[in-house]
Specification:
11 helices; 219 residues; Integral_membrane_TerC; Integral_membrane_YjbE; transmembrane; membrane; mainly alpha
């Protein structure tokens, strides 16, 4: 049951963090004929699965080093705030004229933009390589197949973004506590309340995002 819950969380954070990736996939292959477009998208997806697995395995190993996990947690917490607070930027990806050029563009963009996904999955899976592979293998084809649909979902159902941001912040809190050195410092400074840190960070991110969006809509 715990494994199914973790797999669900991995799928959720991939969904909310892959909006940009989905747009890149759509834009990189837009100039190709329909048949070649499908080839480029699925070859790009297959390469992205392998790339994400390698990067996540590396992250799992690196996060075992003292203070590295705490640093990753702080970066992941920043990403969760950024997800809710930052205005959307324009993606400038030119469509490619051949299958392999499109695949190369998709892989390069995925490599550049996958840091948030990799950190989140590595933090959530806690070294369970089977969960990592299954989560990535399922989520990337979903993103590819629904590259246009996902972006619409995230705009139409903002609650998905808030849920994803909460999971990211909660994961960051757990990573802070799990760090061999930094976790001990937190436990010493907050002996009674340290176990509540992940939930408090998740709520803080969601409330901050709600306030920001309310201010924007009121202005």
């Amino acid at each position: 049951m715990d494994s199914l819950l973790l797999l669900g969380e991995i799928l959720m954070i991939n969904l909310v963090l892959s909006g940009d990736n989905a747009m890149v996939i759509a834009m990189a292959s837009k100039n190709l004929p329909e048949k070649h477009r499908r080839q480029a998208v699925w070859w790009g997806a297959a390469g992205a699965v392998g790339l994400r697995c390698i990067l996540t395995f590396a992250a799992v190993l690196l996060l075992k080093i003292p203070y590295i996990e705490a640093g990753g947690a702080i970066l992941l917490l920043w990403i969760s705030f950024k997800l809710l607070l930052e205005e959307e930027g324009e993606l400038k990806i030119e469509g490619s004229s051949s299958v392999w050029k499109s695949v190369r563009t998709i892989l390069l963009a995925d490599f550049i933009m996958s840091l948030d996904n990799v950190l989140a999955i590595a933090g959530l899976a806690k070294g369970d390589l089977a969960l990592i592979v299954i989560g990535i293998a399922i989520s990337i084809p979903i993103v590819v197949w629904g590259s246009g649909i996902i972006v619409g979902w995230l705009h139409r159902f903002p609650v998905l973004v808030f849920i994803g941001a909460y999971i990211l912040a909660y994961t960051a809190g757990n990573m802070l506590l799990q760090d061999a050195k930094f976790g001990a410092v937190i436990s010493f400074m907050l002996p009674t309340f340290h176990s509540m840190l992940p939930m408090v960070l998740g709520i803080l991110v969601v409330v901050t995002g709600m306030l920001k969006r309310r201010m924007v809509s009121a202005g």
